[in-house]
Specification:
This is Lysyl-tRNA synthetase N-terminal transmembrane region domain-containing protein. The protein has 280 residues and is mainly alpha-helical. It contains ten helices and two strands; from the N terminus they run ααααααααααββ. The protein is elongated.
């Protein structure tokens, strides 16, 4: 492939079918970097986080809690984008321009603005790639989110409480650290004391983890569900006409009349496919 052809291919951007994976992977990488920046103090001042700050997700000036929350949200959002979810697309289209504006206001990062707007442009240009419906609402899914994200928040919280050895007052035990994390997830000060402003950093980070766990669990439990498939009276009449004409060839054709299914007719109206979306 010649150099001009490579340049034209590069300017055209990724193939439409690969956009969800490309954008989702970008959100995953930046999300992991932001989580590391929110947990480890030294990482927030490293060259790696300097690179992360010019990418979507680093919306604030070295705020540990904001970096941690943004990273977790980006990881959750990336999963939906890779699965072509329409709601994840809507959230990304709103968050990316907001992130670009925040980066320009706080860090005056032109590179960060360009990267954010480039990803947003890819999402808008290839919006037809994000048509998947949300998963069916389930209390078990909300419970699983609460258990898994709660366990992850507890583990990250223990790391956050323990990565400031030079700032800890005294020598708190593992039980004290665990109690501090549990209290902090609910926004209450625990038994571990820190020198200087470290206590505020730890408190805001733990509070952000607890809030994120609560909000995502409540959303999954009470989110609006996509309307279930329903067979209309007109569709049922057309299906019955087809069954009267050709029903003798299919002994199970009467199952097509179930009310919890939708139907798609061929252009000629001589064939139909009945379906029910389980996981879009």
């Amino acid at each position: 492939m010649s150099v001009p052809q490579r340049m034209r291919r590069l300017l055209r951007g990724p193939r439409p079918e690969s956009v969800p994976v490309v954008v989702g992977t970008a959100c995953t990488v930046v999300g992991l970097i932001d989580v590391a920046a929110g947990v480890f103090p030294r990482f927030r001042h490293s060259r790696m986080h300097t690179l992360a700050e010019v990418l979507p997700g680093a919306l604030g000036p070295f705020a540990a809690a904001l970096s941690l929350s943004a990273g977790m949200l980006l990881l959750l959002l990336a999963h939906g984008l890779k699965r072509h979810k329409r709601r994840a697309w809507r959230a990304a289209v709103v968050l990316l321009p907001a992130g670009a504006a925040a980066q320009f206001a706080y860090r005056h990062s032109v590179v960060g603005v360009l990267v954010s707007l480039t990803l947003c442009y890819l999402l808008v240009r290839h919006r037809d790639q994000f048509r998947a419906l949300p998963d069916p609402r389930s209390r078990w899914r909300a419970l699983a989110n609460f258990v898994l994200l709660g366990a992850g928040s507890l583990a990250l919280g223990l790391v956050i409480v323990s990565v400031h050895p030079g700032r800890v007052v005294g020598d708190p035990s593992i039980a004290d650290r665990l109690q501090h994390v549990l209290y902090g997830l609910f926004g209450v000060e625990g038994p571990v004391d820190y020198a200087g402003r470290t206590s505020w950093t730890v408190a805001y980070s733990l509070g952000a983890l607890g809030l994120l766990t609560a909000v995502t669990t409540i959303y999954l439990a009470f989110r609006p569900e996509h309307p279930a498939a329903r067979l209309t009276e007109d569709d049922e009449s057309r299906l019955r006409a087809l069954l009267e004409t050709h029903g003798g060839r299919d002994s199970l054709g009467h199952f097509a009349l179930r009310r919890d299914k939708a139907v798609v007719f061929s252009p000629s109206g001589k064939a139909a496919v009945c379906y029910r979306v389980v996981s879009g």
